[in-house]
Design a protein that fits this description.
By secondary structure, this protein is of the alpha/beta class. The protein contains eleven helices and 17 strands. A hairpin with a 2-residue loop joins strand 7 and strand 8.
Length: 354
């Protein structure tokens, strides 16, 4: 019996021994090793996230939290971040919140990587770390931020074959790993609206993401607070293979070098919303990141920073454009909020709660 998930070497060994594994188990084992053994962020890493591009991103989230808490009556609350990277977003958001007299009674980071935990401690020395959301405190409202967190969680893939739907299994083909249809029928698992898709179509489900979202939503319903989700994705259900790998800021083969590349998928915001609603939480419409940041005031913040540092004006404008422009992150990335019953509708989102 193994103690914990297999290492990439064990995973490859299992597959080589003809023990096929689901895409979900493959992704979970590979990413667990990947994040535990490196800092993947920045120019020297494999990818860059919005907080690392510009301080303005975290500052807008700080403004969003300060505004929401003010309209909720300034309750004592705990700041929670899921997958907080180097702690950059939290540091920028908390600094901005403090300018408005909004200071949490505790900072809690859900992070399993020892490497990233060390980086977070340098920016947030008073923060408490958690392996998962189940150990978060339950004595005060929570403001939960999840930026590029759900995209790295494992997904199941199902492919339509001539004989019906089958789960994609990772197997060895020659000297390579590849996803191949399994033998067990899976028609009942595929959303009814997609079951008649053409042969070769792929449908993805993310039960791990749904479970975490539902757990957070029930905590919010019980304790009060809100959750902000920012990620690249879509409103499902949809057909399509979104599993991708990134290495040194370039796309790579997801099945080559497991544990040495970052594996992600597009987030289904409809599925996350559906997971939150049974708790009685209110769910906003999904916003485009670029629009959301502009409603929060990123252009005014850009002008303020550029005025204070004129020699950085072009650099700051470039940072803003990477976050907001439709041909950069502005349209691909989406934003959604979940609020506890009785909490005000959060700013930046059109319409009321869904």
């Amino acid at each position: 019996m193994r103690d914990g998930p297999p290492t990439p070497a064990q995973l490859i060994g299992d597959i080589a021994a003809a023990r096929a594994t689901t895409v979900a188990d493959f992704m979970a084992a590979a990413n667990s090793h990947y994040y535990a053994t490196r800092d993947p962020l920045g120019a020297a890493g494999d990818f860059t996230t919005a907080p690392e591009i510009s301080q303005m991103f975290g500052e807008m989230i700080g403004i969003w939290i300060a505004d929401l808490c003010a309209r909720a009556g300034n309750p004592a609350f705990r700041y929670v971040e899921l997958g907080p990277g180097r702690g950059t977003l939290a540091a920028d958001a908390l600094r901005t919140m403090a300018r408005f007299g909004c200071t949490p009674i505790g900072i809690h980071l859900v992070e399993t990587s020892p490497t990233l935990r060390a980086a977070q401690r340098t920016r947030l020395p008073t923060a408490a770390h958690h392996d998962d959301v189940d150990t978060l405190p339950d004595d005060a409202p929570l403001i939960i931020v999840a930026n590029e967190f759900f995209d790295a969680l494992p997904i199941h893939q199902y492919i339509r074959t001539a004989d019906g739907w089958r789960e994609h299994m990772v197997e060895r083909r020659g000297d390579k790993l590849a996803a191949m249809p399994g033998k067990t029928p899976a028609d009942d698992i595929v959303p009814a609206a997609l079951r008649t898709a053409a042969v070769g179509s792929i449908v993805e489900t993310a039960p791990a993401a749904a479970a975490i979202m539902q757990g957070c939503a029930f905590r919010l319903a019980r304790l009060g607070g809100a959750m902000l989700v920012i990620d690249y994705g879509h409103a499902g259900p949809v057909v399509g293979d979104t599993l991708q790998a990134v290495k040194a800021h370039r796309f790579a083969d997801p099945f080559a070098d497991p544990g040495e590349v970052d594996l992600t998928t597009h987030v289904d915001f409809t599925a996350l919303a559906d997971a939150a609603r049974p708790a009685g939480a209110a769910v906003t419409a999904v916003a485009i990141q670029g629009d959301w940041l502009q409603r929060l005031g990123i252009d005014a913040r850009l002008q303020s920073l550029a005025t204070a540092a004129p020699t950085r004006a072009a650099e700051l404008q470039g940072q803003r454009d990477r976050l907001v422009a439709a041909d950069a992150m502005g349209e691909l990335f989406k934003v959604m909020a979940i609020t506890a019953p009785g909490w005000p509708h959060p700013t930046g989102f059109t319409g009321g709660a869904a």
